[in-house]
Amino acid sequence: MVTETDLRRPDGRVLHVYDTGGAGRLPVFWHHGTPNVGAPPAPLFAAADRLGLRWVSHDRPGYGGSTPLPDRDVASAASDVAAVADALGLDRFAVMGHSGGGPHALACGALLPERVVAVVVGAGLAPYGAAGLDWFAGMAPSGAASLRAAAAGRAAKEAHEAADESYDFGFTDTDLAALRAEWSWFDSVVGPAVASGKGGLIDDDLAYVRPWGFDPADVAQPVLLLHGDRDGIAPVAHAEWLAGRCPSAELRRFPEDGHISVLRHAGSALEWLRRHD
């Protein structure tokens, strides 16, 4: 069972929080993708329960029940996570992010070093402008166009999102199969994320192409990177770059997987987290 509550920050913002509960369990903060709300990943509940893990998460600002925070950077996620952890009385926890949640999970590792025990990133992005990385290479054309618009600034990004254009997510056959099966769960978190507009999505994409507010090299905890070689949303070169930058990173590549189907391996990532508690 997932309990949902609202947490008010000192600046007046509200964070909508999710918690599966369980005293004595290792909390795992789930960082959702773009555009999703923050409900923790139901397809992983059984594995987490077996391993004694507790899911905690929140809607990032501008999504679901969380107040927008225009011009936020990726690093701001660490402050919000610390506030949620304090409210729930959690001293130590792991973090796990998929897609756009990956950079936010890394932010927590870098900026909350005394609290975060390990970091899992599935299909995540590297920082925009990362040295030695052709950032857009391998992205589906529509995804690259969307992020290029973000790189041009808020007005260009808002105009891009307002245009009535079809969007090719770059999903592979394995992605589509996963979305027809247990990861059809995404239907429950994507629709609510854009029900009242694309503000959260726009703020996310702007944050990805601005300075993140931390260096992945500062993530000293164990880091597990899961990435599909056929990912057209966050190309595998991004994970290779992160693996070379984070000092304690392990990269697991999956030749047949794309952006969603890589989550087929998330159960083994939870086992890895349990070993690093």
Q: How many distinct helices?
A: 10
Gross geometry: globular
Q: In percent, how helical is the residue content? A: 25-40%
Query: N-to-C SSE series?
Result: EEEHEHEHEHHHHHEHEH
CA-CA gap between termini: 23 Å
The largest sheet is:
8 strands, mixed
Task: Using brief descriptors, characterize the structure shown.
alpha/beta, 10 helices, globular
Topology overview:
Layout (H helix, E strand, L loop, with lengths): L2 E6 L5 E6 L6 E6 L13 H7 L1 E6 L17 H13 L4 E6 L2 H11 L4 E7 L18 H11 L2 H9 L10 H8 L6 H8 L4 H10 L14 E6 L7 H10 L3 E6 L11 H10 L2
Parallel strand pairs: 3-4, 3-5, 5-6, 6-7, 7-8
Antiparallel strand pairs: 1-2, 2-4
Protein described:
By secondary structure, the chain is of the alpha/beta class. Helices cover 35% and strands 18% of the residues. The protein contains 10 helices and 8 strands. It has helices at residues 45-51, 76-88, 101-111, 141-151, 154-162, 173-180, 187-194, 199-208, 236-245, 266-275; strands at 3-8, 14-19, 26-31, 53-58, 93-98, 116-122, 223-228, 249-254. It has an 8-stranded mixed sheet with strand order 1-2-4-3-5-6-7-8, with helices on both faces. Helix 3 links the parallel strand 5 and strand 6 (116-122). Helix 2 crosses helix 3 (101-111), helix 4 crosses helix 8 (199-208) and helix 5 crosses helix 8 (199-208).
Write a compact overview of the structure shown.
With 277 residues, the protein is an alpha/beta fold. 35% of the residues lie in helices and 18% in strands.
